[in-house]
Specification:
Elements lengths: L22 H6 L3 E5 L3 H7 L3 E3 L2 H8 L5 H18 L39 H24 L6 E4 L8 H17 L7 E6 L2 H11 L4 E7 L2 H9 L4 E4 L1 H11 L11 H15 L5 E4 L5 H6 L5 E4 L1 H8 L27 H9 L2 H32 L2
Parallel strand pairs: 1-2, 1-8, 2-3, 3-4, 4-5, 5-6, 6-7, 7-8
Helix pairs in contact: 3-14, 4-5, 5-6, 5-14, 6-7, 8-10, 9-10
Length: 387
């Protein structure tokens, strides 16, 4: 049985005969397809199992008029959260001696304090930063909530990339995101907290797992980096196929990087083989896919998070039937050494991997820059609203 036939969350690619066979439908027979977008209309069109978001995708979607209501809602809720945090702690009312009737449900009347009028421009820079942070957290969750109406599986919501080297701050931010989903009636079992795969990020994910919070470790560019995630027991990893090719074509040009020679495809294949051979439960989700050949060469991988352009390209290949390239029955032929990755091994192997180190740091910087751009958009709205 192919690994994609029984997924870790109980889902499985459909074996239903399609009326219009094409490469995308055929891929779904062997791999769970995840939409890499923050646009709700695209998710409705392609009906993926899961969806992932990040600050870059949310920033892109937030520029569109159809998503302004989500931004306005996030602003209102973020402001309210800030104002409530500034209210004095209310003392609990004393219990009375009166007895309630048998089987009478105990009722607690929750009265929210009357909040003062809010003026963003009167806050000092540190207070403004806190307000904007509360709003961006809520905005990420707002997009996630809309997506969860359309997908039966997970949605990934990203932690602030600027916390990538701070284990405790990453844990705290993850818990806040989960609490926002919980307030909206969504259980943590449907959320993947997306964290950059630094050593500190991996240790944060390991701690969060103990509290039942599942993580998607992103920006995977190195075999040992992936092993460290699996040995920490994380739910899912995202190796970045296309960005790996970017580095090789820039730094080692003139080589044949097509199909099986594609360095990103080779890395994901090695990771998948190792995870299956040593029975790690961590899901391998190929990410940063751009080319049809990347998707077809990784057919059989647990999951793929695919951008809309590539989904369209695959859907346009009518009559194409794919066969899985990644198969558990091939594992017996492979001589794979089991390696335990501690902190020293992780740091040394990343140090030895120029591509892995450069692309991890570049990815963190890019996500942080896009988040800062999104924060500036929100700050401009708040400033204008109080003029």
């Amino acid at each position: 049985m192919n690994a994609a036939e029984v997924q870790h969350d109980g889902s499985s690619p459909s074996k239903k005969v399609k009326s219009n066979p094409n490469a995308l439908n055929s891929l779904k027979d062997h791999t769970v397809v995840v939409a890499d977008t923050g646009k709700i209309n695209d998710i409705q069109k392609f009906q993926p199992q899961d969806a992932t978001t990040n600050p870059s995708l949310i920033l892109e979607a937030a520029k569109l008029p159809e998503y302004q209501a989500l931004i306005d809602d996030a602003i209102q809720k973020g402001i309210k959260a800030y104002q409530l945090s500034k209210q004095p702690v209310q003392k609990q009312p004393k219990r009375t001696n009166s007895r309630k009737k048998k089987d009478e449900p105990e009722t607690k009347e929750i009265v929210e304090p009357e909040l003062p009028q809010f003026n963003f421009n009167t806050l000092n820079p540190e207070e403004q930063k806190i307000v904007i942070g509360l709003i961006t957290d809520q905005l990420s969750v707002n997009f996630g909530l809309e997506i969860l109406k359309l997908v039966p599986g997970y949605v990934s919501t990203e932690v602030d990339a600027r916390l990538s080297y701070d284990k405790q701050a990453t844990i705290d931010k993850a818990k806040r995101i989960i609490s926002l989903y919980d307030s909206a009636g969504i259980t943590k079992e449907r959320i993947l907290i997306k964290i950059a795969s630094t050593w500190e990020g991996i240790q944060a994910a390991k701690a969060l797992k103990k509290e039942g919070i599942l993580c998607n470790m992103t920006l995977i560019f190195n075999y040992y980096q992936a092993l460290a995630c699996a040995q920490a027991g994380v739910r899912l990893i995202s190796p970045f196929v296309g960005r790996i090719l970017d580095w090789f074509t820039k730094n080692k040009s003139g080589e044949d990087y097509s199909k099986q020679n594609h360095p990103g495809v080779k890395l994901v294949t090695s990771i998948w083989n190792s995870f299956k051979k040593f029975k790690y439960d961590t899901i391998v989700m190929a990410a940063s896919l751009r080319l049809v050949d990347e998707a077809t060469e990784l057919c059989g991988c647990d999951r793929m998070t695919i951008p809309i352009k590539l989904l369209n390209d695959l859907q346009g290949l009518e009559g194409t039937v794919l066969e899985p390239k990644l198969k558990v029955e091939n594992l017996d032929k492979l001589n794979i050494e089991k390696v335990i990755v501690d902190e020293k091994t992780y740091r040394w192997e990343m140090n030895q991997d120029a591509m892995g180190t450069e692309k991890l740091n570049e990815g963190i910087r890019k996500f942080a820059q896009d988040l800062e751009t999104l924060e500036n958009v929100i700050k401009q709205k708040l400033t204008q609203n109080n003029q």
